[in-house]
Write a structure and sequence with these properties.
alpha/beta; Beta-Lactamase; Rossmann fold; 3 domains; six-stranded antiparallel sheet; binds adenosine-5'-triphosphate; binds magnesium ion
Length: 500
């Protein structure tokens, strides 16, 4: 009936489970039939399932026990249903010719999936209700057309990160907290097939010879995978989901990431073209902060952005976006962030925003900041402002440029004005834990002063961090500049917060 989409039968086919002994439901064969039996009629426990006529499964029960028994039955039913789904999923994956299905239209595909599922369910004597059937069909459709088990997580708005540790363990991040999801892959082969589907769509390959890959999903989400043997217990996948509406300054203030006073200071800093570095650990909110800060740039300016994976969503009219490119499968065609940056300097930008500085492009970034493209911004991986400066020094040293340490430091000190520290705290909240100004050089050392910080004071019994933001009390090194540009920040902004 669906020969186009079904796998060729093997020469000695494995015997299928016998059809049910009891009479089949009249709806079988029409997919979502109307006369579907109640789930309580299901009698599945691994392997073939014999349909049992309604009533035979139920024992008469005393009235007083009805409520707890009903709850128990519901739980058991759910467990059994889970088992059926897994089994059916496996049977379908084994039987479908997925490559042929890839070319079908959506409607054709949904129809085929429906009939194949009906056939398998019929053979196994399994009856599902309408809702269960719809969910199952959707899961199977996702398998063929989408990214299988990942699809439901990608659609789930409350999920921000998806982390796969081998086929049977998928963690998701919701509200800043990582939690184990109930979604799994069938096995490593299944997981590898989905990885391959993602990377081949962007002309990349992942195998034993190229065991890791970075890519962007169709919806803009950032994707990274590493496969065995480098990933020891099964493929590792991380997905940073693309947020259509990035968090803006107001959202971040509302979420407690920083205060209105800090926002006013940052507005003055960005508008008066200070060079800003957002520093932070993995997933601490660097890109989000960078994106929010960019909203303070005047609409008349020409901004060029350079990223590995285009994540920034600038609101200005005059924006040129660049995405660096790794080499293709033949090892050719790479365009590094440094190549993009060098080229960007010839494209008459007012400001350059580099998504993340992590390598040799640091030289060009500092040069751009020093030579007429002030107001530029980037992010780096570091745990504090001081650590951030060391990271910059290391990057310069690693890029192969021979430069005395003092010269290196004075170049950093004159290029970078502000370091904003983003942190993901242990309770999952993301906060701007420090704003530090770079004030120049004292001898061989870069001098800095912290203007705002998050002061931690304790922990609640629920492990929520207690603390408050405060100015440190120092006068901004850039107050004159702010004043000259028309940003006369009130003195109280820089006064430490008094806690009762
Ligand atoms: N203050 C915040 N409150 C709540 N969620 C936030 C906050 N800042 C960022 N996020 C969310 O946290 C996730 C990680 O943020 P983001 O991509 O900005 O981090 P990152 O430091 O750039 O990560 P990476 O190191 O992987 O590049 C995103 O889903 C983002 O929407
Ligand atoms: Mg980022």
């Amino acid at each position: 009936m669906f020969s186009r989409y079904k796998k060729e039968a093997p020469s000695a086919p494995a015997p299928r489970p016998k059809p049910a002994a009891a009479p089949r439901p009249s709806t079988a064969g029409t997919g979502n039939g109307a006369a579907l039996r109640e789930p309580s009629n299901l009698k599945p426990t691994g392997g073939a399932v014999n349909a049992v006529s309604p009533g035979t499964m139920r024992k008469p029960m005393p009235k007083s026990a009805a409520v707890p028994l009903a709850a128990d039955k519901n739980r058991k039913r759910k467990e059994r249903l889970g088992e059926i789904k897994l089994e059916l999923h496996r049977a379908l994956l084994d039987n479908l010719n997925l490559a042929a299905l890839d070319n079908a239209t959506e409607q054709e595909l949904r129809l085929e999936i429906n009939s194949i599922a009906t056939e398998v369910l019929q053979e196994k004597g399994i009856v599902l209700n309408r809702e269960e059937r719809t969910t199952l069909n959707q899961e199977l459709y996702d398998e063929v057309k989408g990214l299988g088990p990942l699809e439901s997580l990608l659609k789930d708005e409350s999920v921000s990160d998806i982390l796969v540790n081998g086929p049977h363990q998928i963690f998701v991040e919701r509200d800043g907290k990582l939690q184990l999801s109930d979604v799994t892959f069938k096995d490593e082969k299944h997981l590898l097939r989905i990885i391959d589907k993602i990377v081949s769509a962007v002309g990349r390959r992942v195998d034993e010879m190229n065991p890791y890959v970075d890519a962007r999903l169709q919806d803009g989400s950032r994707f990274n995978a590493m496969v065995p043997p480098i990933a020891v217990d099964g493929s590792l996948v991380s997905i940073r989901k693309f947020k259509k509406d990035k968090l803006g300054i107001d959202d971040l203030v509302q979420f407690g990431a920083f205060t209105e006073e800090m926002a006013a200071y940052l507005q003055a800093a960005v508008a008066t073209r200070l060079n800003v570095i957002v520093s932070g650990g993995t997933g601490s909110g660097k890109t989000t902060t960078l994106n929010a800060l960019s909203s303070f740039i005047d609409d008349s300016e020409r901004i060029l952005t350079i990223e590995d994976t285009a994540e920034l969503q600038l609101q200005q009219t005059h924006v040129g976006r660049m995405e660096s490119r790794p080499p293709n499968v033949e090892g050719k065609g790479a365009v590094s962030p440094r190549d993009c940056l060098k080229n960007a300097l010839r494209m008459r930008p007012d400001r350059i925003i580099v998504g993340e500085t992590r390598g040799e492009e640091v030289i060009d970034m500092l040069q751009a900041m020093n030579t007429g493209h002030d107001g530029s911004m980037t992010t780096i991986h570091a745990n504090s402002a001081r650590d951030g400066v060391s990271r910059l020094e290391n990057m310069i040293a690693m890029s192969g440029i021979e430069m005395p340490l003092k010269a290196m430091r004075s170049q950093i000190a004159s290029a970078v004005h502000l370091i904003v520290q983003a942190s993901r705290l242990q309770d999952g909240t993301r906060r701007m834990t420090s704003i530090t100004e770079v004030t120049g050089m004292e001898g061989d050392v870069i001098s800095m002063q912290e203007v705002f910080r998050f002061q931690r004071t304790g922990l609640t019994p629920e492990n929520k961090i207690v603390g408050h933001f405060t100015a440190t009390g120092v006068r901004s090194h850039f107050s004159e500049r702010f004043k000259m540009w028309g940003y006369d920040l009130p003195a109280h902004l820089f006064e430490p917060t008094r806690m009762e």
